[in-house]
Design a protein that fits this description.
Blueprint (H helix, E strand, L loop, with lengths): L12 H26 L4 E5 H5 L14 E2 L3 E10 L7 E7 L12 E3 L4 E4 L5 E8 L8 E10 L3 E3 L5 E7 L27 E4 L8 H16 L4 E9 L4 E10 L2 E13 L4 E9 L1 H6 L7 H5 L3 E6 L13 E6 L6 E7 L15 H7 L9 E4 L8 H15 L5 E9 L5 E9 L5 E12 L4 E9 L1 H6 L7 H5 L3 E5 L7 E5 L6 E7 L12
Parallel strand pairs: 1-9, 2-10
Antiparallel strand pairs: 1-3, 3-7, 4-6, 4-8, 5-7, 8-10, 11-12, 11-18, 12-13, 13-14, 14-15, 15-16, 16-17, 17-18, 19-20, 19-26, 20-21, 21-22, 22-23, 23-24, 24-25, 25-26
Organism: Chitinophaga alhagiae
Protein name: DUF4843 domain-containing protein
Length: 517
C-alpha cells in the first residue's frame, strides 16, 4: 500500500519575519476601523425613541404615540452619547417646517423654546411639548422635531428626528364649550362635531316639538309596527345636512335618511331644502310629515348653542339645537356628537344620566343585566303573587317549572330582553325570551314596548300572562339603587307597592352558557 504524501511549505527566517510584519499591519488596520466604527470621537445627542423605534414609511423619523388635543404636557427623552459634558449646555432643537402641519402657539408650545438645558455630568434629559386646547376638527396634525445640538455637542444624523401626531378631535372634556365660536362653524366638514340628536325623553323639549314627535311616532308605528327611537341632523359638507330617523323595523335597527341643502348665512340662519331620500326615507316620508314637511321644510332656523336658561349644561358633552327664526320658543335640541357613517353601529346612545349612574359608562357599561330570584324575601307581595300564579299555570303546560328571571339590556340600552328560566318535564334547562324596545329616561324610568318572543317564550306565554301581558307589556318601572346596596330595584310607576329586585351583572342570554342555580 502506498502512503499519500502531503507537502507543506518551508519558511525561512526572513520569510517568517515578513509574514509577521504583514499580519501586524493587517490587524492594526482592523483595530483602527473598529475604533472608527464603534467608539465615538465626538459628543452626540439623539432622541431615545429614534434609536429603537422603526421609522415611519417614507420618512427619516419614527412616529410617537398620538396625543390628543388639549391633553397637556409630554416629555421626549434625549440621550447624550460619547461621554458627558463638563459644563452645562443648551442643546438646540427646531421644528422641521416642511414636515410639520401643526402651528406653534395654536396647537402646541415648546416648553424650552428651542433650547434644552442639559446639566453637567448627565447623559439623559428631555424636551417638553405642551399640546394646547384649540377648536376641534377631524384628522391629525403633525409636529416634527429635530435636534441641532451646539458647537460642542453634535446631533446624531440617524436619530435626530421624531414625529408627534396630534389628534385634532381630541377627547370630550366635561363642560367644555367654545362660546366664542358659533355652533354652526363647529358642525360638519373638518370639525369634530357633525350631529345634533333629538332624544324625545330629554327634559325641556318644547310642547310644540313633542306634539309633532308623538304624531310622527304614532304614524310610523301604524306603518307595520315600526318604532321611532330618535331623530338626528347630521351636517356633512357643502351645506349638506342629513335628517336621520332611527327606528326599529320588524327585523331590527333601521335608519331613514333624508338629504337636505341647508342654505344658511354666515350666522347659521337658513332653510332646509329637500334633495333626496334613501329607500327607507321614501317609505316613511309621509309618516314623518309632522317633523319634515310641516316643520323642517316649512321655516327658517338658526343653528345655535342651547341657552342654559332652557336646559342646564350636562355633566358630559354638549347641547345644541335649531331654533325657528320666527318663533324662538319652537326648537329641536339634543346632544352633539360625531357620526362617521350612518349605520346600526352608530345609533345614538340615550341621553339619560341614570344609565351611567345605575349601570356604568354608556357604550361600555359595567353591567347589562339584572338577575332576579322571585323566591327572595325582599320581593313585593304583588310580584311574588304574579310569579306563583304563573308558576302554577306553566306547570300545567307539559310539566314545565319556571325557576328564575333575568332582565338583560343591550349595550346601548335601546333594547331589553326579559328571560324566564325554566326546567322541562325531563329536567332540561331552557329559557323563554321576550324582546322589547326599552327607553330609560332622565328619572330612571324604563318604558317597554313589546317586539317579539322566541319559540320557548311562545310555548309558556299562556301561563306567564300575569308577568308578561299584565306587567312588563303594560307597565313602566323606575330603576333605583339604594345607597350601599348591591341590588337594583324596579318599581311599578303606577303602584309603588309592586316591585322586584335583582343583582346586576353581565350574563349571556343562552341557557347553554348560563343557567342560574
Amino acid at each position: 500500500m502506498k502512503m499519500k504524501t502531503i507537502y507543506q511549505p518551508y519558511l525561512t527566517g526572513s520569510m517568517m519575519t515578513f509574514c509577521l510584519a504583514a499580519a501586524l499591519l493587517l490587524f492594526s488596520g482592523c483595530f483602527k476601523k473598529y475604533e472608527e466604527d464603534f467608539f465615538f470621537r465626538d459628543l452626540q445627542v439623539e432622541f431615545d425613541a429614534a434609536t429603537w423605534q422603526n421609522k415611519a414609511p417614507g420618512k427619516t423619523y419614527p412616529l410617537m404615540p398620538v396625543v390628543n388635543r388639549a391633553s397637556g404636557t409630554y416629555h421626549y427623552k434625549v440621550n447624550l452619547v460619547g461621554g458627558q459634558v463638563a459644563t452645562a449646555q443648551n442643546i438646540g432643537y427646531r421644528i422641521v417646517p416642511e414636515e410639520t402641519t401643526a402651528q406653534e402657539g395654536v396647537h402646541f408650545r415648546l416648553l424650552q423654546g428651542g433650547a434644552m438645558p442639559m446639566q453637567a455630568a448627565v447623559s439623559i434629559d428631555s424636551i417638553g411639548v405642551e399640546i394646547l386646547d384649540f377648536p376641534p376638527a377631524s384628522g391629525e396634525l403633525m409636529l416634527v422635531l429635530e435636534l441641532t445640538g451646539n458647537e460642542s455637542v453634535k446631533a446624531s444624523e440617524n436619530y435626530k428626528r421624531i414625529g408627534i401626531p396630534i389628534n385634532r378631535r381630541g377627547i370630550v372634556v366635561p363642560g367644555e364649550l367654545y362660546p366664542g365660536l358659533p355652533l354652526y362653524e363647529q358642525l360638519g366638514g373638518d370639525n369634530y362635531y357633525n350631529t345634533i340628536t333629538l332624544d324625545p325623553l330629554y327634559p325641556g323639549l318644547p310642547p310644540d316639538l313633542l306634539t309633532r314627535w308623538n304624531s310622527a311616532a304614532q304614524q310610523v308605528l301604524d306603518y307595520g309596527g315600526r318604532i321611532l327611537q330618535s331623530f338626528s341632523l347630521r351636517f356633512t359638507t357643502d351645506q349638506t345636512v342629513e335628517a336621520i330617523a332611527w327606528y326599529y323595523s320588524g327585523s331590527g335597527k333601521a335608519q331613514a335618511i333624508w338629504t337636505y341643502k341647508f342654505e344658511a348665512d354666515a350666522s347659521g340662519k337658513g332653510r332646509f331644502v329637500f334633495v333626496s331620500g334613501n329607500t327607507n326615507a321614501n317609505n316613511l316620508r309621509s309618516r314623518m310629515q309632522p317633523l319634515l314637511e310641516d316643520y323642517l321644510e316649512q321655516y327658517e332656523f338658526n343653528v345655535d348653542w342651547i341657552d342654559p336658561a332652557i336646559i342646564p349644561a350636562p355633566a358630559k358633552g354638549y347641547i345644541g339645537g335649531i331654533f325657528r327664526a320666527d318663533e324662538p320658543a319652537s326648537f329641536i335640541f339634543g346632544p352633539i356628537s360625531s357620526i362617521e357613517t350612518v349605520s346600526a353601529d352608530a345609533w345614538p346612545l340615550p341621553s339619560s344620566p341614570a344609565i351611567e349612574q345605575l349601570f356604568g359608562r354608556q357604550g361600555a357599561p359595567r353591567y347589562t343585566s339584572i338577575l332576579i330570584d322571585p323566591a327572595e324575601a325582599g320581593q313585593s307581595e304583588d310580584f311574588k303573587t304574579r310569579w306563583e300564579t304563573s308558576k302554577t299555570a306553566v306547570l300545567q303546560i307539559g310539566g314545565r317549572r319556571i325557576h328564575k328571571m333575568l332582565v338583560s339590556f343591550d349595550a346601548d340600552f335601546n333594547g331589553v330582553k326579559v328571560l324566564i328560566y325554566y326546567f322541562t318535564s325531563t329536567n332540561g334547562k331552557v329559557l323563554a325570551r321576550y324582546d322589547y324596545q326599552a327607553r330609560i329616561d332622565h328619572n330612571g324610568i324604563v318604558k317597554l314596548a313589546f317586539l317579539t318572543q322566541t319559540a320557548n317564550g311562545n310555548a309558556i306565554r299562556p301561563g306567564v300572562g300575569p308577568l308578561i301581558d299584565e306587567y312588563f307589556n303594560t307597565q313602566a318601572f323606575s330603576i333605583t339603587k339604594a345607597a350601599g346596596a348591591e341590588t337594583l330595584t324596579l318599581t311599578q310607576v303606577s303602584n309603588n307597592a309592586s316591585f322586584f329586585s335583582g343583582t346586576p351583572g353581565n350574563h349571556p342570554i343562552s341557557a347553554a352558557e348560563f343557567f342560574p342555580e
